Input
Amino acid sequence: MMQELDVKTLVDVAALRDVLRRVKQNGEQYILKKNGQAEAVLVPIRDLEDLKRRQELRQRAWNDLFANMREVHALNPGFSAEEVEADVDAAIQELRQRSRK
Output
């Protein structure tokens, strides 16, 4: 759970060191606020690395999806988007009917 922390409390070097220690050792996360407004976050490096990894995986998935869509389109140049959508809708309905049986 993220805690809120006013940056004024970090002016003291000892306080900053304590917060950094808690982030590193305990995995604590902080929203740093200035004048009541969120300015930044302080999270363990492992959390940041995990976030980056997830973003990269998501981007690769989108890239793969669009590459597949381009390939399907290239293999079926004579069909309009409406025709393809109608075929997909029909296939979905057929699968749903089969799964109900």
